[in-house]
Design brief:
Distance between the termini: 9 Å
Number of helices: 1
Number of domains: 1
CATH architecture: Beta Barrel
Strand content: over 45%
Low-confidence stretches: none
Mean pLDDT: 86
Largest sheet: 6 strands, antiparallel, barrel
Order of helices and strands: EEEEEEH
CATH topology: Thrombin, subunit H
Radius of gyration: 13 Å
């Protein structure tokens, strides 16, 4: 479904724990909290600067939940320096490109259509 803002999926501001890795093995090396998320991707703040097109492995879980993770291969679509932070921080947007296991089904259970 395409909305007025041309996004394929509705974004929500629900807080998710985002664990991500630059390694293809997918062992989480870093952790962040989502600013917004949809079935198509997630936006979060990082201390690492990425380049558009970089591929990472990330897992998302509702913050404070004991639900199992939804693990994805994801492509960085945007990474911008953020102002107003004491430490250099980047706003990073990724699109989910390939789920691991039944991660797509898990993500759908967390988010609205």
């Amino acid at each position: 479904m395409i909305t007025d803002d041309k996004r394929a999926f509705k974004r929500t501001r629900k807080k998710f724990t985002v664990r991500y890795s630059l390694s293809e093995k997918g062992v989480p090396e870093h952790e962040a909290v989502s600013k917004n998320i949809s079935r198509g991707g997630v936006y979060f703040e990082t201390f690492q600067q990425f380049t558009a097109g970089d591929v990472i492995v990330c897992s998302v879980t509702p913050a404070g939940s004991r639900s199992r993770d939804s693990v994805w291969q994801a492509r960085v679509v945007r990474c911008e320096p953020l102002s107003g932070h004491m430490i250099k921080t980047f706003g990073t947007a990724v699109e989910f490109i390939r789920p691991f296991g039944d991660s797509e089904k898990a993500l759908q259970s967390f988010l609205p259509a």
